[in-house]
């Protein structure tokens, strides 16, 4: 049983790495996939509390079943990561933080090709992003 979270900018390669973990036996819980399943959109502000509560419930259920779980989303601020630190502690685990440190220009180029976010939203997320620290868990740098 392990709990890991992806941490990085949109289009940094988090989901690609999380899918590699999934192929190695981890259960991948993707907030983007859950959003699409719940309301058919990549983001809907009024649904976010339900998305996060549902994600936590899924993560807890998988952990109770003894699985290794990775939460696939940006986890871009210390505040957002606190939820997972708390869950890890409740299960007696050290949170593993898979930090994908892709530069802004690369994310911007990928976004331009895929057209997922406006450039202003991407800039705002980049501005808000807080690098994870060892006080939050075990940092695993993903290249």
From TrEMBL:
Q: Where is the signal peptide?
A: none
User: Alphabetically, which GO biological process terms does the record hold?
Assistant: DNA repair
Q: Which domain of life is it from?
A: Bacteria
Keyword annotations for this protein, in alphabetical order, are: Kinase, Transferase
Q: Which GO terms describe its molecular function?
A: ATP-dependent polydeoxyribonucleotide 5'-hydroxyl-kinase activity; double-stranded DNA binding; polynucleotide 3'-phosphatase activity
Official protein name in the record: Kinase-like protein
Q: Which organism is it from?
A: Jeotgalibacillus soli
Q: What does UniProt list as this organism's lineage?
A: Bacteria, Bacillati, Bacillota, Bacilli, Bacillales
